[in-house]
Amino acid sequence: MKTQGASGQAWLKRGNRMALIRRLRVHPGQSRVDLAHALGLTKSTVSALARELIDEGWLVEREVIATGDLGRRPTPLFVDPSRLLLLGTQVGIGHVRVVLTSLTGEVLQARSAGYDTSLDVEACIGELTRTMLAVAARCSKAQRIIGIGVGLPGGVDQARDQLVFAPHVHWHQVPFGALLREALHGTPLSGVPVFMQNDADVAALGETEFNPSPVADPLLLVLVGEGVGAGLVVGGRLLTGARGLAGEVGHMVLQIDGPRCSCGRRGCAEALIGSRALLQEDGASPPAPAVARAGHYLGVLLQNLAVAYDPACIVLGGGTAVALGDALLAPVRATLQQYAEAAGLPEPTLRLSRFGADAIAVGAAALAGYRLTQPSPD
């Protein structure tokens, strides 16, 4: 659709600015000539946009080291990691985690706090706000937070700015974004754009936005913690579903008449793989046979998801996956290999999240960067 007038020109310029930033996130160090060729823009347009973005703190140019070659070499451009920052927040079950990151994903500050899950959602938001402000206070005068991302333990309807359902804390149809913005009103974070999404979705974005790799598309991330969830990024876009409930794979049935799940059904992935399934009454580490069994069922789940989505890469994250490490990963790999050999197909590429226990919080920061730099007007 063609756009006309001042608003159309403004939209086009914003799209070109954000396309330039996103190009440099994937291909850092390109020159203005390289960018003009890659994006189909004139060199003068790229030069003007680059100057604006450098002045605003988005980009930085670095000197080229002299090699003795004749002629002037193009100056490489990079996303500036020092001036504009992102705040990423994880709302977990009874705890919150806040990280301050650069535009390229380096964690600069981090802080955690607990909240009482028996209280209402406002109590959680109050603790989250205090933690966010404590982290934001560590910024220098030369730094500015330009976006806040929130990873939530349930489905999110972005169109309505609502948390649809968070089963482990029994929150239904909560206007979480509006409540958080209200809590931040009058503080140093007042007016900073707030974006929220399901925790597995933001963790998946963290893997693609802060570690861009064209060979990892589509990327499927599965979180294994108290619950089990998945996030899928295809062509740089999240697959969230019509109501924001895509990826609720913890309630896929893996065992007919298996153990009862928190949702009321039997044999769900969460009931077989989640931390509650492995929890010992005395708080001790789960026995090896229990971990091996959970790893087998996780392998079955990943096999089903691999068949459905044919991902280039599967990433595992979440507290349980991080805590158990190779003890869980080994039976997962063995199960995937067994299925692959039976079908005569290559085994899916599998790895742990690059951000470990901070996968959701860092991913939430990536969500803010993702939403702020999308060229489209939405």
From TrEMBL:
Pfam families: HTH_24, ROK. The keyword Methyltransferase does not apply. Keywords: Kinase, Transferase. GO terms for molecular function: kinase activity. It comes from the Bacteria. Coiled coil: none annotated. The keyword Kinase applies. Belongs to the ROK (NagC/XylR) family. This is NBD/HSP70 family sugar kinase/DNA-binding XRE family transcriptional regulator. It comes from Pelomonas aquatica.
